[in-house]
């Protein structure tokens, strides 16, 4: 396809511009010949198409862009950087989730071409539920997306806007589909991280409008809006909202026109696959933290006040205090499961730790004391980022909350706790937080994963879906086990507190604990994983630890990362 050539005849273009109704398009088909139809016109790819690969209006269309809305920026997409065979539509309107093409190159009235489609019908989602992930329902998991409907415009358009479309050159929406849009941890890992990597590679700039794929009529989750918001200067919007029948003067920050327009010179659709591209999870978390830094710093005082009002917590700024935040669940979340039943007792024990429960001076680490406190994540994402920049570690039950560790300064730690029946030995638990913090693409790892798996059955209690056990609830044993409440033993918490203090934000020290197996324990401080089973480190070097104190002694012989400790002790500030 040669999309540049169609704009190389200004006279014809002027005709089109003056009266770009479908009727005129149809009446003047000779305008568009001799443009060859292309069956693959939706894919602007390949090195031979360098001129086309920058997806911006060409030639006269550029004039149109500046004339139409003076001063509006032009979104930029470089199709050479596309990894996912994204589809490009030209001259389309969106109307009630339908994509309506006016592109003469692929319109049945002017061409033998085929309108590009995006096959989304094998994409899965778990039914959104106030109880969290819908995979707890037998028929609520792995639901399939309906097909995305793309059709040519016709003479029976109901909407006046589509009877006389004016295509925006300023706004370029990109539909982004991937599996499990209502699982926060999956959203981060299956798609958001890849979008950060793609943007850094130059695929799309901040001027595009990001349209996350969700089933028609359902909301884009707040975490998706927050994360995608770090990649675009326009509001993140669902296709339902973008394509809604509303007055065109309705204000909107999703478009550069500032109002609800629905017809675009260019629009794209991508199906992001789960492959080996990217996998730079910490990088993506840091991207979010950097982007929101001006905002969270400006609200610092309000966040401090809120910590005090909700939890009577004042965060010590003293770097000799090791700060560990517990991912605490609100009443609704706790009703479902995954509560740390003895949270208050553990927080108190941590804060009263003395003697042999504290890092010995001989270790030469900066920490003299521990400070533990609970925080409910997800209520203000901005506050969560702010908080994570100020703590040394986070502890929580298996779940998306642990994704917050990726906002931390380098050398931060996460302790993941799993209920009885849901350890990494017998389930997929290791695929989430541990996987994200152990990416081969980010060695040496900037943040460290520690685990406590519950093996003593009497330390866990069933969650709501296990207790009620209705016929339409999931039959999978591990799905029920995942939601069990847990009592964490003090010896296991003490062990990980001392481990994190000994490591002192130093990767090589962490690796020493990792190779010995003492980074990942059971409730009674035994190895949770046999040597050779850690897929993320050299199998030949994995050992069985017997004495946890001896392992920490070994770790503290390794030189400390003063750089990471200095960064942690220095408050975030904006670059000047
Ligand atoms: C969409 O993709 C699925 C799975 O790859 C395939 O089975 C189906 O036939 C495709 N549908 C269309 C319309 O191409
Ligand atoms: C658009 O953004 C401005 C500035 O942040 C805000 O005041 C306005 O309410 C937003 N409008 C809409 C429709 O979201
Ligand atoms: C399991 O936990 C219970 C409750 O804390 C405790 O009484 C019991 O000794 C534990 N059993 C083992 C084998 O550690
Ligand atoms: C490691 O220790 C566990 C018990 O703690 C034992 O069952 C296992 O055989 C040991 N494995 C090796 C390779 O030493």
From TrEMBL:
Coiled coil: none annotated. Keywords: Glycoprotein, Glycosyltransferase, Signal, Transferase. One of its GO terms (molecular function) is pentosyltransferase activity. Residues 1-28 form the signal peptide. InterPro entries: Glyco_transf_61_cat (IPR049625), Glycosyltransferase_61 (IPR007657). One of its GO terms (cellular component) is Golgi apparatus. Residues 309-413 form the Glycosyltransferase 61 catalytic domain. The keyword Signal applies. This is Glycosyltransferase 61 catalytic domain-containing protein. It comes from Astrephomene gubernaculifera.
């Amino acid at each position: 396809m040669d999309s540049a050539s169609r704009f190389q005849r200004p006279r014809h273009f002027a005709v089109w511009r003056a009266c770009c109704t479908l009727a005129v398009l149809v009446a003047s088909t000779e305008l568009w010949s001799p443009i060859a139809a292309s069956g693959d016109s939706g894919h602007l790819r390949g090195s031979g198409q360098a001129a086309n690969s920058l997806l911006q209006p060409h030639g006269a269309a550029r004039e149109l862009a500046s004339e139409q809305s003076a001063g509006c920026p032009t979104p930029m997409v470089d199709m050479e950087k596309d990894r996912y065979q994204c589809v490009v539509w030209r001259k389309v309107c969106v109307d009630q989730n339908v994509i309506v093409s006016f592109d003469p190159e692929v319109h049945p009235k002017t061409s033998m071409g085929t309108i590009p489609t995006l096959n989304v019908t094998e994409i899965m989602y778990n039914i959104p539920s106030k109880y969290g992930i819908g995979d707890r329902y037998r028929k609520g998991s792995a639901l399939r997306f309906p097909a995305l409907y793309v059709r040519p415009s016709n003479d029976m358009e109901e909407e006046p806007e589509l009877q006389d479309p004016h295509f925006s050159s300023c706004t370029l929406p990109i539909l982004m589909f991937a599996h499990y849009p209502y699982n926060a941890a999956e959203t981060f890992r299956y798609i958001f991280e890849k979008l950060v990597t793609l943007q850094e590679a130059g695929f799309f700039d901040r001027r595009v409008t990001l349209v996350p794929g969700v089933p028609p009529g359902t909301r884009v989750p707040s975490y998706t809006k927050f994360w995608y918001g770090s990649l675009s200067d326009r509001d993140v919007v669902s296709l339902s909202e973008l394509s809604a029948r509303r007055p065109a003067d309705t204000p909107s920050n999703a478009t550069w026109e500032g109002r609800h327009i629905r017809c675009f010179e260019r629009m794209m659709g991508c199906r992001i696959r789960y492959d080996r591209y990217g996998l730079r999870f910490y990088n993506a978390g840091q991207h979010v933290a950097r982007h929101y830094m001006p905002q969270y710093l400006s609200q610092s005082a309000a966040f401090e006040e809120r910590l005090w009002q909700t939890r009577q917590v004042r965060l010590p700024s003293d770097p000799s205090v090791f700060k560990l935040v517990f991912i605490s669940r609100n009443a609704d979340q706790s009703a479902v499961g995954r509560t740390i039943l003895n949270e208050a007792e553990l927080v108190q024990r941590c804060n009263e730790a003395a003697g042999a429960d504290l890092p010995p001076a001989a270790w030469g680490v900066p920490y003299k004391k521990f400070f533990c406190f609970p925080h409910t994540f997800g209520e203000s994402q901005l506050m969560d980022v702010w908080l994570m920049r100020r703590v040394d570690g986070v502890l929580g039950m298996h779940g998306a909350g642990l994704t917050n560790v990726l906002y931390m300064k380098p050398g931060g730690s996460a302790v993941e706790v799993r209920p009885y029946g849901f350890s990494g030995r017998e389930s997929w638990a290791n695929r989430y937080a541990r996987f994200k913090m152990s990416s081969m693409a980010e060695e040496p790892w900037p943040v460290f994963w520690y685990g406590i798996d519950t093996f003593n059955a009497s330390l866990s209690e069933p969650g709501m879906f296990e207790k009620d056990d209705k016929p339409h609830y999931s039959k999978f044993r591990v799905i029920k086990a995942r939601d069990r409440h847990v009592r964490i033993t003090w010896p296991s918490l003490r062990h990980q507190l001392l481990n994190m203090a000994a490591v002192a934000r130093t990767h090589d020290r962490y690796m020493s604990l990792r190779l010995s197996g003492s980074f990942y324990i059971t409730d009674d401080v035994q190895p949770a994983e046999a040597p050779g089973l850690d897929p993320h480190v050299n199998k030949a070097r994995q050992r069985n630890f017997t004495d946890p104190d001896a392992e920490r002694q070994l770790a503290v012989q390794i030189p400390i990362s003063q750089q990471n400790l200095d960064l942690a002790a220095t408050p975030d500030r904006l670059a000047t």
